[in-house]
Design a protein that fits this description.
mainly alpha
Amino acid sequence: MPRPTAAQLVYGSCTVILSTLAMLLLSGTGSAAGISFIAVTGFALGLLVALTVPVRRPARRGRSTIAAQHSPASQEPMAATSAASSDT
């Protein structure tokens, strides 16, 4: 399993804290069962948000792209391009 990125940790932590605080304030519960249910729900929401944050992946380059960049046929000499541009 890949390690979480910094963005995933921040979004998940903020979601846990803010959602738990909001649910506690809005519900006005004082019982231990209600508080524990809200805490577990906030934690589950934080996990959900952290796992759904899109992760940037480096672009994969295929063999054809790499071969085209390094082939001698795709590279033109500098003299030919400067001469062609001066004729115009």
